[in-house]
Amino acid sequence: MKLYPICSLLIILTGSIANGIVNAQEQAAPADAVKTQASDATVAQTPEQMLRESMARLAPGMPITAISESVMPGVYELISGAQVFYLTPDGRYMLEGSIIDLENKVDISEQRRGSLQMSLINAVPEDQMVVFNNEAGDAERSITVFTDSDCGYCQKLHQEIADITDANIRVRYLLFPRAGIDSASSRELQSVWCAADQQAAMTIAKSGGSLPDATCENPIQSHVDLARQVGLRGTPLIYLDNGTKIPGYQPAAELIKMINESEPLAAK
After folding, report:
1. Residue closest to 124 by CA, chosen among 166, 158, 173
2. pTM of the full predicted structure?
3. 2: helix, strand or coil
4. Average predicted confidence (pLDDT) for the chain
5. More confident residue, 10 or 15
């Protein structure tokens, strides 16, 4: 459509023909307005959709699992894998941290992260872990530990493993060689995995003993990938089955107490 200056338009729109055009335009205007409003309603986006578009533009490499309203008014929660972030409604500012319920003394964000990370951990079958169980093999509760045979505090925790299993709590080890997948500790963890008795081999490795070199198909790389997903920064990294995340060593007595005073996520 050709656009005319206002003065030219007044010259063109003269006589009865012009009046007819104007009348036709006036009659059509309400219908056009209704059509435009309907079109606007059709393309209206939710806040979550708008935030996804904003993140795609401002942080294109960030995977987005979900975006929803948080417990804090005016702030949105963004889930990326097992990580939790917060967004302003315009999607310009992103926060990494915790929302704490002061009245109930609860770190809501840490609970959320723990639940997400435990979902990833529980997706790993126990036959892809090194598991220490009670004598009857029927412990109902568990802790999951990212461990390295060369880690001093991992070794200290392992010295107390009988106390934990005697309390009917099984210990599920995920293998994380801190020095890298091609390191000596990785080869030692591989030898543990490939041993006929994995539990005995783990105890020997964590006691400073030597194991015969062994190679076989193993889940170490997948454990390392999972550690990155949950944000591991050091070993041991302990997860209680209620979703509580404990970075670093914790005495067996304290772990047992925390387990006994909680419920596993699956039971909630």
Report:
1. 173
2. 0.75
3. coil
4. 86
5. 15
